[in-house]
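[audit] Reproducing an earlier prediction to check determinism. Same input, same settings, fresh worker. If the tokens differ from the archived copy the diff job will pick it up downstream; this log only records the rerun itself.
[audit] input (400 residues):
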Amino acid sequence: MGSMNSRAHSYLLTLGHTCTDITQGALPAMLPFLIMSYDLSYAAAAALVFANSIVSALIQPLFGYLGDKVDHPWFMALGVLLAGVGIAGMGLINSYWFIFCCAMVMGTGVALFHPEGGKLANVVAGKDKGTGISNFSVGGNLGFAFGPILAVFALSTWGMRGTLIFLIPTIGAAIILFSQSKAYQRLTIKEAQRISESDTPDQKDDWVGFSKAITLNTMRAIVGNGMITFIPLYWIAVMGQSQEAGALILTAYSLVGAVGSFFGGRIADRVGFKRMVTLSIGLLGPLMLIFLQIDQIPLATVVLLLFALSQNMGYAPMVALGQAYLPNRIGFASGISLGVVVSMGGVAAPGIGAIGDVWGLRASMLTIATVAFVGLAAASLLFMGRNARESIGAPPKKAG
């Protein structure tokens, strides 16, 4: 187990997740700068999010599959390093297609980190899977929170070359994670031995249940990624605020999202994953419709942060639910749940941006609201009735 206990390893995984996703969090905050500097359309700017996301969506299942066959904890160190190198390179050469390629390199790093990180988060969580995945998810939220602040500060101070600042946290995290690779291998082996020696019967993978969970998680990701991409643009173009204000509202959104992730998994461990997921996604559509009717900054901020809280409270339960359906393929399930579905949200961003180019950003936000309502309908249908795995994520029955 090395010199660290399980809790310390959990914190380290959270740190690695933060330093990886700080690059993804920074990218949307950079879009207003890119639009202003290079006269890009909303769709062209959102295509950078697409470039980052499509790479992760295509190769992340492969890394998850490999991680289930042979442990590769060093994937995490390489992943966070590539994410940092990718975003740092975006400020070095004044070429849209070079920036596009750098976004793809960043996506490759993200794809390397998440499957192995999600698998190890499940290992160190013990029995409280919702809580363990919540801790890991908080790291991603914090990355998305601090990324915009760091991006706006660096680009405002040093220009586009300020992206080099992202090498500091990513190289540091890569060194620390690489130093613990052998310890993570021992943890995984120990957990496998514990499961094989337990009295618990062998669990079979439920691909139907997993497909249902992933379908709903993809809708949640389109809503979440769409909000992260277009909140700064909406705050500037519709609400009349500055670029700095756009970055700050995105940071506040992500910080409140971290609170939602922290408590969502803990509540789900008590009330059940499916119940928590349905409640979370059910609030999103109505909150968005309310938000679009408000033109006062304080009230709009309150509603937006309530949206962030609700949207993220369902995140960890969805990931844990996906892992529970595939107990023999935790790495693959983590790669899909933590990476591919989030990436699919980015893949949808250019389409939402194109709607904004034609009908305005309010139409883009209304499209996100529509997806949220479809997600609620899907949750009602997917979780309807009982099946062989209905006990997954349900609260424990009282004795007696």
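[audit] rerun output stored. Observation attached for the diff report: The mean pLDDT is 82.
[audit] end
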